[in-house]
Amino acid sequence: MAKIAGLTYVDEGEGPVALFLHGVGTSSHLWRHVIAELRGERRCVAPDLPVHGGSDLREDLSLPALADAIEEFCAELGLGPVDLVANDTGGAVAQQLAVRHPARLRTLTLTNCDVHDDTPPPAFRPTVELAERGELAGLVGVVLDQPELLSATAYGQSYERIGDPAAVVEAYLRPILGKPGGGEAFERLLTSIDAKDMIAIEPALTLLAVPALVVWGTGDVFFETRWARWLRDTIPGVRKVVEIEGGRLFFPEERAAELVPHLRAFWESERATAAGSVSARGRG
């Protein structure tokens, strides 16, 4: 892991840059199987959002601020236009980034994520309410020592099957609580995610021409499939909606082998389209 602009990140492979964003309570580790498939053909960059992994804490943890943090990260790393792939809260950050810094994106792929006023989704509200009362960090601390309890939390609803709860705890939760003030910052992050920031960008999304793909797990209790259709009907750049039958929120981790072919096909199609446009202009 390296670190720049206060964010730790994975950087593997060579080729056009694919940038991967995770959501709350996970980290770049979520994308490890996707990256393993793609690093032979892409430069795969996956930062840990503020508070997560080894990344620093920040004062402003609103969605627009998180998008600006990712833009700063990309600029510091010297990345050109990227193929952005996002999940969960990372998808909300990606939408913010797309409207605030559209030149940063070559393409956009959204998997199950916060959309419009489904931010946070109703099924996640009990967790947010714990954070609002300052009780979430203490409960997460209990799970660190008793990982078998993980299945009774939102993680249990996000995976089809948690094969190794201890490994999930070590990958995602301990790095958050292991840093001074991490638990409190995590609570502040959850309470900073506000639907008003997503509703505010709807007009800009209706003008977003960046080529986009939507890949949605149909078994997600947090983000219903209707939100994939909302994205299709709102963002003019959306080329296709793909459904992953029975996939839950974290299907990019559990079922990476089903996501990767859609990424490859989408990127190749857009590359061919872009090459054809350049050729046509040359003939003109």
TrEMBL record:
Superkingdom, taxonomy of origin: Bacteria
Gene Ontology MF, one: hydrolase activity
InterPro entries, per the entry: AB_hydrolase_1, AB_hydrolase_fold, AB_hydrolase_sf
Pfam family membership, one: Abhydrolase_1
Sorted UniProt keywords: Hydrolase
Span of domain AB hydrolase-1: 19-254
Gene Ontology CC terms: membrane
UniProt-recorded name of the protein: Alpha/beta hydrolase
Organism: Nonomuraea montanisoli
